[in-house]
Amino acid sequence: MSAVKCWVGWLSIFAILSLLLSCATPASQPEFPPSESDLELLGTTRLCDAKPLILASWEGTSFTRKPWGSGEQLQRIAQSLQPDHDRFYFFNEDDVFVGGVFRYLDGLSLQPYSVLRGTLTQLNPTFEVYLNSTSLLGGRSLQTAVLYRTGDKTSTTQYLVLESDDAPKLLVASVAIDPYEPLLTSYQKAFLPGFELSQGVEGRTQGGDIVSEKAKDFLALQQFARGEAALFASCGVRDARTAIKAYTKAISHGFEDSVRLSETHHRLGLALQEEGLLQESRAQLEQALTIRPNVPEVINHLGAVVAQQGHRIQASELFERAIILKPNYARARFNLAEALEVVNPSRAIEEYETYLALAEGIPEEEGRATLVRKRVKKLKGE
Question: How many whole angstroms separate alpha carbon 226 and alpha carbon 305?
Answer without folding.
Answer: 24
